[in-house]
Structure formats: structure tokens, C-alpha cells
Amino acid sequence: MTQPPGPSGPYGAGGYGQQPPGPGGGPYGPPQGPGFGAPGPYGGWPPAPPPRRRGLSSGAITAIVLGSLAAVGVVLFALAALVRAGQPQGTEKIAFPSTLEDGKYHRMDGNAQVEAQERQLQDKLPSNGTAKVATYSASSSGDPTAGGLAIAGAYGDIDVSSAKMRDDMLDGMRQSQSGEVVGGRREFTPGSGEVEVSCQLTRIAQGSTAVYAPACAWADHSTAATVLEIDLANTSPGDVDLEEFASVTARVKDKVTMPK
User: Fold this and answer.
1) Is the pLDDT of residue 23 over 50?
2) 178 in a structural domain
3) Whole-model pTM?
4) In angstroms, what is the C-alpha Rg of the chain?
5) 154: which residues sit within 8 A by CB, 6+ positions away?
């Protein structure tokens, strides 16, 4: 029976690594058609194509990113102290440009899952706080194997210390069903040292495949957000440079925050 296509994700359409069944119902059987399922012109059977390597499909990547963001968001936006009703609001807001990191990452718009995630997080905020969620692909075409960034944050008047807010956001990653925190949390002051960033490494698995994803958080008096990177090349902890990703996060903060 033909399966309907999976939902579209921030990095493109796809399901969870399913392949069309081949003869005998197996997922990796040779396709039917000329040259397959019948002897060749000299009585021999043409060799079947090699089995496809199981990996992360676009749908799996979508599930990984949004699953991790959901855990972050529940902790972040459950904090009643994030925005105090009746107090002056912060002076900055979060807005997502079309590209980040000099055009390396491209904002993926119009994804129903991302929009639903933002609405869900917004519902947890007081009326004068604003939730912001976005995903960026490392490919302008949304190629899922290119990976990308996911950002979940909010702006308002934050009445919690920066260190506590960053810790609370990253603690949310520990509640993700798809991720497992690896190693300890580290603190950085990249660049000019004006932005404090907390980072940790998360092992995110889908089926038999796992990637190691850095996540970093910032918080100040107006804005707070977590930035998560998905890169399929990061198959071991040694593939990830947390200090370098802290610098990426500081640059992202600089680009997505602006005066109201």
C-alpha cells in the first residue's frame, strides 16, 4: 500500500527514513522494472543495488529540532518571572533576518510545525511577553542533509539573573525525550566579552543514527534564547567545538536582537 507523504519540515519534506518496499515487502529490495525481477539477456541476474545506509531523513531532523525546542520552551516560558505584568518592558526585541552568519544559514518560512511551536510557547507567556521561534537551513534549497539552526526565545522585561535564565533554558534540554546531555555545561564570553553564553552538548538519536548537537543560551534584561545546531557530520563528541559555537551564538544574538 502506498504511504502518504510525511509532513513538511523546516528543512524540507520527508518522513522518518522509510523507503518504498521492494519485492517481498522488505525495505531494501531491488526496484521492479526492466533488468530486475527477470533474468538478463545472458541468463544471469543483474546485481541488486547496494542497501541504502540508514540515516536521518528530513522528517527525523525536524523531529529532533522541534522536540528539543519543545523541552527548552516548556522550562523557559513556564517561568512566571520572565515578564512581570505592569512593569516596564525591556528595550529590545527579537526579529529573525532572512539569513545568518553572512548567508550561511537561510530562514525557513511557512512551516506549520514551527508556527505551532511558537504559538504553544506564546501561550505560556504573560500578555506583555513575546515568543519567537525560527529554523534556519544551511542550504538555500532546504536540503535536509545540510543541517541548520533552531532558535527558541522570547523578549519582554526579564526579572531573573542572566545566569539563572541560561541555566533554566539549558535544563530544558535534559527533559527532551530525543536528546541526552553529554558532559558538563560550560560558560563563555566570546568576542568582545560583552555577551555571556552558556553551552552544553546533546546527543540526539533517531533510530540507529545519532548526532551531537551543541546548544547555547543567552539572556539579558530584554531577551533570552537558546540556539541549537544540527550538523549530520557531528557523529562524535570530538566533532563539536563548544567554544566556537558560543561565538556563533553571540553573533546570532547580535543579528536577531534590536531596539523596539
Assistant:
1) no
2) yes
3) 0.72
4) 21
5) 76, 77, 82, 83, 94, 121, 125, 129, 130, 131, 132, 223, 224, 225
Number of domains in the chain: 1
DSSP state, 105? E
Residue 15 belongs to a domain:
no
pLDDT tens for 109-139 read 887 778 887 888 888 777 778 889 888 989 9
pLDDT band for 105, please (50, 70, 90 cuts). Answer: very high
As beta bridge partners, residue 201 has 182, 214
In a domain, 83, yes or no: yes
Q: Give the containing element (helix H, strand E) for 225.
A: strand 223-230
The predicted pLDDT at position 88 comes to: 58
- Using CA atoms of 97, 99, 101, 102 in order, give the dihedral in degrees to the nearest 10: -110
Classify residue 117: in a domain, yes or no: yes
Task: Name the residue among 36, 2, 7, 38 with its Cα closest to residue 19.
Answer: 2
Q: How many CB atoms lie within 10 A of CB 211?
A: 24
Which residue matches cell numbers 566570546? 190
Domain extent, residue 106, equals: 58-259
pLDDT digits (tens, 9 = 90+) for 192-231: 788 999 999 988 876 677 789 899 999 998 898 989 898 8
